[in-house]
């Protein structure tokens, strides 16, 4: 049955996004044509666009063998085509065609036998001429020569799934509607996402190089929790560090092996790596030498995202917090969700888990989708959440392109913040925020030093974490939970129990009236949010920052200078440690001391910390009642221990006094 797609429908925007992204393909038109059919392989739909508007959409079936243009592959060819011929204009519904000619027979219903052996070409045919050499045109790849059609089918019960033998099947009523709308020469885009098949995660042992990393460990845990066989290695474990985390992995059945290549044995089905794992790492070299598949962690996450009714949270700031809030809401509302995230959830740590992964019993999965390494574009979630767009690891226009891809790949609904620079993604989306632009809007906001209160519609929320940025985070989580059917009233109580995220403005303790807080802030916006939250509850802020990585610090250097100079007041202090270096081939050609000098030149009281021991003593001497010591930085797992050492020094000073 023909289904009219309204312009506000997110699927309309998805078709336009897919077409826009495909303009970079060979054989693409110079701009989007006025008349275009987009066959969405991932969603198994065909959308007819007229003058940039989605007029109609129909379920289809592309090939069960997947996407490809090779002869005899029984695959559906990707890319740009044009309609070569329209066949069957006067044929009765159900007319059977063979070799593009009517046979005189008519299909009257029913389907039997093998899907391809009994695959009838019915009612109408639209033949396709490929426009991309070596992909869908030319010797061995030619769509026209391969008899690739859009046609009616006797397998209408299978539409919406990839079950054809190469052609694009439609219901017989729908192929007539499409036939009447199109002309010879109209363009057709068969849009498929570029994904690589990976081994079944339950097919053998998957080995994770860099297992101790937050993103890697979460996926490894989830694979183990859902029945997979998992091992891993990490330099920190080889050095005898992080023993408690190693014990937690082993309790989950994850074997921790030396990072010397020995984990790549005959039973190893795949090696999983992150962007930080270089080819010189012994596990990587061994896998390459032995022909073991090497899979990026984002490909593993993309697999799990596709297998679940997933909620993927992205944005420059707040991903871990919002992911944790959504998980808390869904769990408290009885939805039994799973989670894969980069931040540690205290409620999971209280259950003896590392805290960044959990496998629930439902099909709901909440994931943190990272834009920093470009892996965001791999995910096809049910619900996509775009929090904000700021300058962090990449330039904003580069991140915006990834957000557009996520929008195109989102299956059900998109949740987007109400900032103006997100308007480009907001068509058909559910927006959240504090302005009148938001659909899920926070009103009557009260910001306190320890908690916040606000109202959404008729429901009042109390959030046990401070800061306006956390109100925005909560609104994002509320909107995402609303998108999967949770009533606002069922969300309020779970949010009152939100216990935060590890290293997200996490209080380590208080001594001598001085609070010590550990925070993951590492870009300008996050640093500003942390300082502003600290000022809600302190007379002075004693800020400590350790930049992470020479590349990111070089990229954000001027942002750091501007932010610290703007946010820290006359009585506040800043100490900056040397740039954290985790190893590898990064060029170390400057020092944090140079950044400190530029900040100090703007009038901020800033010092370079020559060592952590020196800094602990310096803070203990400087701090006084009513101060808040704010330790900030990312990637270095020892920062929390460093914050505790500052607290211990303050406590020792109190004992001496």
From TrEMBL:
<dbReference type="InterPro" id="IPR036565">
    <property type="entry name" value="Mur-like_cat_sf"/>
</dbReference>
<dbReference type="InterPro" id="IPR000713">
    <property type="entry name" value="Mur_ligase_N"/>
</dbReference>
<keyword id="KW-0547">Nucleotide-binding</keyword>
<feature type="active site" description="Proton donor/acceptor">
    <location>
        <position position="151"/>
    </location>
</feature>
<protein>
    <recommendedName>
        <fullName>L,D-TPase catalytic domain-containing protein</fullName>
    </recommendedName>
</protein>
<dbReference type="InterPro" id="IPR013221">
    <property type="entry name" value="Mur_ligase_cen"/>
</dbReference>
<dbReference type="GO" id="GO:0009252">
    <property type="term" value="P:peptidoglycan biosynthetic process"/>
</dbReference>
<keyword id="KW-0808">Transferase</keyword>
<dbReference type="InterPro" id="IPR036615">
    <property type="entry name" value="Mur_ligase_C_dom_sf"/>
</dbReference>
<dbReference type="Pfam" id="PF08245">
    <property type="entry name" value="Mur_ligase_M"/>
</dbReference>
<keyword id="KW-0133">Cell shape</keyword>
<keyword id="KW-0436">Ligase</keyword>
<dbReference type="GO" id="GO:0016881">
    <property type="term" value="F:acid-amino acid ligase activity"/>
</dbReference>
<comment type="pathway">
    <text>Cell wall biogenesis; peptidoglycan biosynthesis.</text>
</comment>
<dbReference type="GO" id="GO:0008360">
    <property type="term" value="P:regulation of cell shape"/>
</dbReference>
<dbReference type="GO" id="GO:0016740">
    <property type="term" value="F:transferase activity"/>
</dbReference>
<dbReference type="InterPro" id="IPR038063">
    <property type="entry name" value="Transpep_catalytic_dom"/>
</dbReference>
<dbReference type="Pfam" id="PF03734">
    <property type="entry name" value="YkuD"/>
</dbReference>
<feature type="domain" description="L,D-TPase catalytic">
    <location>
        <begin position="35"/>
        <end position="191"/>
    </location>
</feature>
<keyword id="KW-0132">Cell division</keyword>
<keyword id="KW-0067">ATP-binding</keyword>
<keyword id="KW-0961">Cell wall biogenesis/degradation</keyword>
<dbReference type="InterPro" id="IPR005490">
    <property type="entry name" value="LD_TPept_cat_dom"/>
</dbReference>
<dbReference type="Pfam" id="PF01225">
    <property type="entry name" value="Mur_ligase"/>
</dbReference>
<dbReference type="GO" id="GO:0004180">
    <property type="term" value="F:carboxypeptidase activity"/>
</dbReference>
<dbReference type="InterPro" id="IPR004101">
    <property type="entry name" value="Mur_ligase_C"/>
</dbReference>
<dbReference type="GO" id="GO:0071555">
    <property type="term" value="P:cell wall organization"/>
</dbReference>
<dbReference type="GO" id="GO:0051301">
    <property type="term" value="P:cell division"/>
</dbReference>
<dbReference type="Pfam" id="PF02875">
    <property type="entry name" value="Mur_ligase_C"/>
</dbReference>
<keyword id="KW-0573">Peptidoglycan synthesis</keyword>
<keyword id="KW-0131">Cell cycle</keyword>
<dbReference type="GO" id="GO:0005524">
    <property type="term" value="F:ATP binding"/>
</dbReference>
<dbReference type="InterPro" id="IPR050061">
    <property type="entry name" value="MurCDEF_pg_biosynth"/>
</dbReference>
<comment type="similarity">
    <text>Belongs to the YkuD family.</text>
</comment>
<feature type="active site" description="Nucleophile">
    <location>
        <position position="167"/>
    </location>
</feature>
